[in-house]
Amino acid sequence: MNLQQLKAFVLAVELQKLYLVAQRLDITQPTVTFHLNKLQEELGVSLFHTKSYHVIRLTEAGKAFYHYASQISALSSEAESTMDSFREFHAGKLAIGSTHTPATYLLPPLLGGLKRSHPRLSVLLDVRPAPFILEKLKQYELDLGIISQTRVDDPDLVALPLTRDDLVLIFDPGHPLAAATDLSPDLLAEHSLISHEQGSISRSLMDGWARTNGVLLDVAMEVSGSEALKAAVMQRIGFGMIAEACVQTEVAEGKLLSRNIPGWRAERFIYAVRHRNKLISPALRMFWRAMEEQFPSRDYLEKARPLS
Fold first, then answer.
1. Is 90 a residue whose pLDDT tops 60?
2. In sequence order, what DSSP letters do the residues of 109-178 get, joined into one string?
3. What is the pLDDT of residue 86?
4. What are 235-268's pLDDT values in tens digits?
5. What is the CATH number of the domain that holds 48?
6. Cβ distance 173 to 256 under 8 Å?
7. Same domain, yes or no, for 32 and 152?
8. What's the domain range around 67?
9. How far is it, in rounded angstroms, from Cα 169 to Cα 123?
10. Residue 306 belongs to a domain
11. Within this chain, do residues 69 and 110 fall inside the same structural domain, yes or no?
12. In this structure, are residues 289 and 268 in contact, taking their beta carbons and an 8 Å threshold?
């Protein structure tokens, strides 16, 4: 069993077509078939239900083997990428997974500075939900995760809180609540709310706040994106609760008004997360230092320590 056989097997499962595997590995399709047959022969078990490979369907043994083969293949690719970074530092690669808020409002200035300083640095930014990013980190498929989360409890991961990701109230300047001097949970419950969708972290935090304060929020509309939420608030469909970082521009321009949520207890932070056992490439080290400069220590945050 060799690495080329493992790569052919993993790609066959993921791409479902042998000609695509051949293109990816830059070999012929008969060579792909040879690798798959040789792998099963050496393992002494059938990994696929058919020998023709026209339909890629794993046996139970194949499913079990894929779990390990995919990790070995990913680690091999990571090792090659890391060596590329050391061979030519400024042409390194950095794979980042991020949730929507930091990807839209926090990362662009950092990445822009890095690209201006190191134009040959290749950056992959994958915007996904936090659970997806954490799983990709555990599979060594990302160098770094930047996520909005209440907490990160995983022994395989190192999490550094960068900044608070508090929710705030937002109103159109003409909304009746915009002129209120004393906002209370009861008063907010009397007006329509534009809310993030069920299942999102923001919605969970909002529902928890409502339960704690004994009110029932009047949700007039649910949206799955911050830009859509802000647009609905500007149309006075209701007021909103949204991450503070998302509305800094609109508040500065006077398009929206922002107020603190009464009785709010900060629970969510933006974290930088990496795998505890992942090798730290020059590109990752460079980016981490940029984050240290952008987010210096606060009273409520642990000061970032240099990676070692």
1. no
2. HHHHHHHHH-TT-EEEEEE--HHHHHHHHHTT--SEEEEEES----TTEEEEEEEE--EEEEE-TTSGGG
3. 60
4. 999 999 998 888 988 999 999 999 999 988 877 8
5. 1.10.10.10
6. yes
7. no
8. 3-81
9. 34
10. no
11. no
12. no
